[in-house]
Amino acid sequence: INSNERTKMSTTTTTNNPLAARELTWAINPEEVLAEHTKINGPIVRTRFPPEPNGYLHIGHAKSMNMNFKLAFEKLGVEPANRRTIFRYDDTNPEAESAEYIASLERDVRWMGWEPERTTYSSELFQQLFDYAIVLINKGLAYVCDFDKATVEKQRDLASRRAQARNSGKDPDEVAPLDPALIPGPNRNRSVAENLDLFHKMAKGYFKEGQYTLRMKMDLDHSNPNMYDLMAYRIKYVPHPHIGDAWCIYPTYDYTHSICDSLEHIDYSICTLEFETRREPYFWVLWALDLYRPKVYEMSRLNLAYTVLSKRRLLKLVNNGYMRGWDDCRMPTISGLRRRGYTPDIINTFCTGIGATRAMNVVEVEKLSSVARVELGAKSRRCLSALTPVKVKIVEYVGCTAESFDDDANCTYEVQNSPTDETLGCHMLKFTPKCFYVDLSDFGMDNDGGNFYGLTPDQHVGLKYVGANLHVSKLIHDKSSPEKLVEIEAKLDMSEGKPKPKSHISWCPSDSVKCEVRVYNNLFVVPEPSEKWEEELNPQSEIVYPDALVDPSVLEVVEKIEFSPDETGGKNKVTEDMSGGTGRHFQFERLGYFIIDLDSARDAKSGAYELIFNRTVNLREDIPVKAKSATSAKDKEKLDARKAAQAKQLAAKEARLKISPENLFKEADEYKGLYSAFDGDGIPTHDAAGEKLTKSAMKNLKKEQAKHVKQLKVKAMKEGK
Fold it and tell me: N or C: where does the chain have the smaller number of CB atoms within 10 Å of the terminal CB?
């Protein structure tokens, strides 16, 4: 490609298309190719959702699904009858992929409510992709290369330095003289016959892994490094999880992706902004093969506060034992969100609300929580609970007698399952004054100067539904642990002239169901985890209450749930609900929204339940704060540690904003001592031990530097500079 063609092919055009982005002249379809595509698609507009099965789908994929199955069509004004989306497994890397991941992707896409036009696999096109590689070789646009990884990096580094010199008006031959061993190198000018022979031998298993690759003969003078003869095929003696061991060479993403889009007649290939610089190779491949060229649109990826969406980090969370698995309720995976109680409607509504633009930002997790409250508030069944139950016994009655509660009619209350939806019905709740339970969080030794509205020795409360006031008569503590409150003897006041209480608290009757409750908080203590993200994990991301109680009305729901025998045969485990509904959700009044967890079980012989509930999200209103005197030293220590971590992050952020971009990796605290050498722009080239960094690592560091530059610009704007 000569310089005139390169300039022509990089032309930017402007359109009114809401999904328009940077265009290239060589991305324009020849008339006959476009006519054939139009003939095949007709009025249909087609997108695709192409995840790689190398992990579980997460909420970032949910945004992509929402865009490809719905939002893109709405932006384009496409009639519902003409909308089509293909679900494609981008399965070209057998080492990282597995049957488990393949099954999980299918399950999550269906659960999210999306109906693809069809499901395809890149691997099922391997023969056609191989044939196209032969076409490229015959055209002189692909060659077999024996460079190892280090040599390829040297070649790309030389090409990059020459391009930078050229772009800055300098002579590349002076700044970065050509090294014939690298550019063009001994491989680029192989004959077609020799390339065909070597490529066929690669496919037949003649060579070791890494001995040869097939590279596309692109443009080593281009300003975009993604045009530096990208790899099309590599040797891997690894069976494929979908098609088995038919191949020992596998195509790369850069070679495969655009061809699959073309063959499936995709109209809009939608990806995230980090792929923007891959427009050139995307269209180069289709140009070289004379294939139909879809439109490409890049949107910002989802960045959610207090979590990570990098598959590499998510995999480490699982493999290093920080999480129980991919469906741990703290994971941002679709399966983790499902287990925690988020529904498809919640997730899709959230994704629609944040939209899909090219603007980079971090979305507050509260936006997701807010959507969940609206959805679950209207559909969740109410019940009473106590996470840390304290026994209460009525020893004095005012306006009533102990005997009056012997009649069920006087102590049984009809409670609406939902105060806003009568169709959800009601349940009966029995008050048991001789023994009932309140939550420890509703009790304090004093009212904290009027800031605590719960029960104290000098402050009464109302009991929800009972219509009575509760006064402390006597506190009973554990003899072996004097600080532990085990029972409250109290007065029950049902008189007409009783004083109005400041608050009404929940309670659980004596026949309540014992259960375990898991309360979930942010996964990290900082909104944007850094390179030291493992140190920033929140130790309070999961708080387990092993001896919690819920009122017996929950059994009306539990008894309708299907339980399946586990491997031991002793217990039957809850069968996962894939309906996407809210039939297993509850609002624990004054505490939040909860769902029955998959670890819940029923004894195969006795039929006794072992129930576990996960908190999906807390209520909009705050739970009353404990009196200061009731806060344990351990809780205060944890709170202080969290505040200190947040203050430390804020101080580090302020310190970073005083560092110039070229000194970021030398002076910022999180990078000090990690690197020993840097290039002219301040990007690290070698780690602390003197080992050269990979191109991928340097690319990520460049992104961090670019992000830092943007933050400095925002700061300058705020300061009016």
Answer: C
